[in-house]
Design the sequence.
């Protein structure tokens, strides 16, 4: 008997039951589903409004969305929105930009030099977890009660996470690409500019997402120190007066700012990282 | 330009990787280095091109590299080592940017090497859009652009499927016919070695020593007509390597 005969003796049995193989492969693929997010958002607000009107959410506990909207409209009409917004954005942009630029520089330094890594990386790990809010009084003493201390708070807050993500990104650059650069006789600075920095850019940009959120969190803290204008100052004032409608309006402005930042960084990722698979 | 390897020994810590390697790579000759995995083939290649320093011994260049050679010792890597954020053109130009060439000259060189590797149409594609074989062609184009005296090829076809490997092997043979390049070609694939090598160096398992150097004097272009002879050479090589490979396979890797 040949091999084939052996096999076919087994398969020719027509009486055996046949059934299709059950599919068990699906379930873990995330697919885009269109405008679900706005629907969730609108549904939540509608429910909240309904709750406030029907009375099962007391207006003491949470003001109705319509009241919040009125507070927001007042803010716009009085022209104070622009004043608060520009004061806050200025602090955010200066603090975040300076913190990010410094953070990327120090991160690259730690990623590239053994001396800097040995000396600075424990220091970064030691200072990163300190809540910058705890240092506010010190910042006031060091940088004055004006803009200096506010910008410094945001700067410090964004600096450390940027350092850590940057040198993590540098560590993750494919060593073989660096070896390739060396094998073609590229100079040190070329390897850094053309291979290491672009290779670390994905990590740096995702670090920016985190540091932008941290910057907004710290904005409110920074505006606790004698700020006359600013979204944070507005929220704090509303809070101390228990004007919860204004408080929620201010918080909504902050989250809109967060959304805008995330969108901008998303665009930047699309533009700079179009080479990724 | 010839390369002479003189008594090269290397190791990491207490592990001896290479022992007393003496070898000549002559102009217009493809020298294949084969050996069981972990025998230090790739380390040897890195030493030859100056990417790693041996503990003892040295690599000597005999004679001058050809005029206009921008990077005499040029590697081709197993994983292609293309920058994913640069287009095909950009990846080739990376190797040319440090030499103070005019833009026109750079464009001319890029156009020339892309034509030679049949990549013209893909000049603006990103690596992620290319198949493995195409990526390795880009790496070959990049290597050709600097007019190397010796190409150091580290398992250049090992990451490719067997059909692509056949195609690329034909391309390499074509290229050698036209340009007569010099190469040191590391591989673990004996079929590649007998198709491409003028000289096949068999390394023993760790610490890598030269066990034997097999010369094949059938011209590269005619090798496809001598399958029987090549088969027997391949058998002979495998006979030498089998025991070593078996022993190497059983070793614990602890470095």
Sequence:
């Amino acid at each position: 008997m040949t091999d084939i005969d052996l096999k076919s003796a087994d398969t020719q049995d027509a009486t055996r039951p046949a059934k299709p193989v059950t599919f068990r492969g699906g379930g873990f693929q995330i697919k885009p589903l269109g405008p679900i997010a706005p629907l969730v958002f609108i549904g939540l607000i509608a429910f909240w409004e309904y709750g406030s009107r029907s009375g099962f959410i007391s207006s003491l506990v949470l003001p109705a969305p319509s009241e919040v909207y009125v507070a927001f409209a007042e803010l716009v009409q009085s022209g104070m929105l622009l004043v608060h917004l520009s004061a806050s954005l200025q602090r955010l942009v200066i603090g975040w930009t300076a913190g990010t630029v410094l953070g990327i520089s120090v991160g690259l330094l730690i990623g590239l030099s053994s001396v800097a890594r040995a000396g600075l990386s424990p220091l970064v790990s030691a200072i990163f977890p300190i809540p910058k809010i705890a240092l506010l009084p010190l910042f006031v003493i060091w940088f004055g009660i004006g803009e200096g201390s506010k910008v410094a708070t945001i700067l410090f807050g964004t600096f450390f996470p940027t350092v850590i993500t940057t040198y993590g990104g540098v560590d993750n650059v494919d060593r073989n690409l660096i070896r390739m650069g060396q094998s073609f006789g590229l100079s040190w600075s070329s390897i850094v500019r053309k291979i290491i920095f672009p290779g670390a850019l994905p990590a740096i940009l995702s670090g920016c997402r985190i540091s932008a959120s941290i910057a907004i969190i710290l904005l409110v803290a920074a505006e606790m120190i004698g700020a006359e204008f600013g979204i944070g100052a507005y929220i704090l004032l509303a809070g101390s007066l228990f004007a919860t409608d204004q408080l929620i309006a201010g918080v909504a402005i902050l989250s809109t700012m967060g959304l805008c930042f995330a969108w901008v960084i998303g665009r930047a990722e699309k533009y700079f990282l179009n080479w990724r698979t | 330009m010839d390369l002479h390897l003189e008594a090269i020994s290397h190791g990491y810590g207490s592990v001896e990787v290479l022992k007393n390697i003496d070898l000549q790579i002559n102009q217009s000759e493809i020298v294949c280095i084969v050996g069981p995995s972990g025998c230090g083939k790739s380390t040897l290649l890195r030493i030859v091109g100056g990417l790693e320093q041996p503990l003892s011994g040295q690599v000597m260049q005999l004679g001058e590299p050809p005029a206009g050679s921008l990077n005499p010792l040029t590697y081709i890597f197993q994983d292609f080592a293309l920058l994913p954020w640069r287009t095909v053109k950009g990846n080739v130009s990376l190797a040319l940017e440090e030499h103070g060439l005019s833009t026109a000259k750079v464009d001319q060189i890029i156009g020339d090497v892309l034509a030679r590797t049949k990549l013209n149409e893909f000049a603006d594609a990103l690596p992620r859009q290319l198949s493995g074989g195409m990526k390795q062609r880009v790496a070959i184009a990049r290597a050709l652009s600097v007019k190397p005296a010796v190409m150091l090829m580290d398992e250049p076809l090992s990451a490719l499927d067997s059909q692509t490997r056949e195609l690329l092997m034909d391309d390499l043979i074509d290229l050698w016919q036209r340009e007569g390049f010099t190469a040191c070609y590391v591989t673990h694939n004996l079929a590649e070695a007998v198709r491409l090598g003028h000289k096949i160096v068999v390394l023993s398992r760790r610490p890598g020593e030269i066990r034997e150097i097999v010369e094949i004097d059938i011209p590269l272009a005619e090798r496809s007509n001598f399958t029987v002879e090549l088969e027997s050479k391949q058998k002979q090589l495998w006979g030498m390597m089998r025991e070593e490979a078996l022993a190497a396979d059983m070793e614990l890797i602890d470095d």
In short: The mean pLDDT of chain A is 89. Chain A touches chain B at residues 174, 176-177, 179-187, 190, 194-195, 198, 273-277 (CB under 8 Å). Residues 75 and 81 of chain A are 5 Å apart (CA to CA).
